[in-house]
Amino acid sequence: MLLVVDQAGWHQSQELVIPEGIDLFELPSHSPELQPAEPLWPLTNEVVANCSPQNLDELEELLVYRGQQLLGQQDLIRGLTCFHWWPLTRRPLTIN
Length: 96
Known about the structure:
single chain, extended, two-stranded parallel sheet, alpha+beta, 3 helices
C-alpha cells in the first residue's frame, strides 16, 4: 500500500514506525497542484477556529454545517482549486 504524504514539518517524525506493507511517497514541497484540496483547509478550519468541540460528534456537526455552507459557494471553491491543467466540467458539485 502506498501512502502519499506532503512534507509539512508537523507531518514528519523521526519516531514514526511504518507498518510492514506500507510505503511512503513524499510529494515535492510547494506543489499544491498535486494536492488540490490543500487550499480548502482554511475554509473548513475557520468553523472550528474559535470553538472547542467537546467530542467527535460536536466536531462532525460543525464540519458538516460548514460543508453545507460551502456547497453554496462553488465559485469560491472553483477559484481555489481550478489549476490551469485541471479539466473543466459543466456538472454541478454534488455530494452523494
